[in-house]
Specification:
This protein is an alpha+beta fold and 262 residues long. It is 32% helix and 13% strand. The chain starts with a helix and ends with a helix.
Length: 262
């Protein structure tokens, strides 16, 4: 117990040194967003105290925004509030997002590393196999992500007309960074799945740069398919201005209202 307490203190001290633990008082909107995060991950998060997110092991993470002045800079080094600012339109009609509207794309990496694992072996220790229409995928069991994906597959099986969008999957777990960046992909944590790439659109495939205006929105994926994922806590890359229509990731803090209606 003493060793665990010492580890917790050292981790907390490290977060303080990085600037994560001191924060100003939250606005009501920020506080509500932080509480949604706590409700989405109850196995790890105890609550919100002042301007900090508090974990069950006593770790405190500061609820603040990035100091970066550019959009790519905020993606590279977001604060927790940058992640929580996202207004994800779960179960809404599928429409072209506004310029730089990428709800859920800013991710506070220390949060994901602490929940899912900070290394390839640590993440692998919690991977289980999900049968994705005959294709075995390795997905994390942490936070119920694998169980959620199985529920998605069960619902989608009732729609054979969508099978060409679902298979073959381009994969789930892969410890890697997002292409062209130093940001850790959610695939690294076993909490994302890519569907059939031949039916997909991705912003970089057309040679666009991060933050460039005029990225066209193209989509073939049916609304019912997307909404099925969203009802089970998965967000869709087709909701992003920097579109990635094959991509879904498990982010129940952003889809709560939609999930409550299933």
């Amino acid at each position: 117990m003493q060793r665990r307490a010492a580890w917790t203190w050292m981790l907390g001290a490290g977060l303080t040194a990085l600037g994560w633990s001191s924060a100003a008082a939250l606005t009501p909107t920020e506080s509500a967003a932080a509480q949604r995060l706590v409700a989405a991950y109850p196995a790890f998060l105890r609550g919100v105290e002042g301007g900090a997110l508090v974990w069950w092991d006593g770790t405190r993470m500061s609820l603040k925004r990035s100091a970066a002045t550019t959009y790519p800079g905020r993606l590279d080094a977001p604060g927790l509030l940058d992640q929580l600012d996202a207004a994800y339109p779960a179960c809404a009609p599928l429409t072209a997002p506004a310029y730089l509207s990428d709800p859920g794309r800013a991710r506070f990496e220390p949060l994901f590393r602490k929940m899912y694992g900070a290394s390839d072996p640590a993440v692998r220790a919690n991977l289980v196999t999900v049968d994705w229409f005959g294709q075995p995928l390795r997905v994390t069991r942490v936070n119920g992500a694998a169980d959620s994906l199985r529920a998605v597959a069960q619902e989608l099986a009732a729609h054979p007309e969508w099978r060409a969008f679902l298979t073959p999957s381009a994969g789930a777990f892969l410890w890697r960074t997002v292409a062209g960046t130093s940001r850790r992909s959610v695939h690294s944590f076993g909490a994302a799945i890519d569907l059939n790439t031949t039916r997909a659109a991705y912003w970089q495939w057309s040679g666009f740069r991060e933050g460039q205006r005029g990225i066209p929105w193209r989509n073939q994926f049916p609304a019912g398919l997307v909404h099925t994922f969203e009802r089970h806590g998965w967000i869709w890359g087709g909701r992003w201005y920097h579109l990635d229509t094959m991509h879904f990731e498990y982010r129940p803090e952003l889809t709560g209202a939609c999930a409550a209606g299933r």
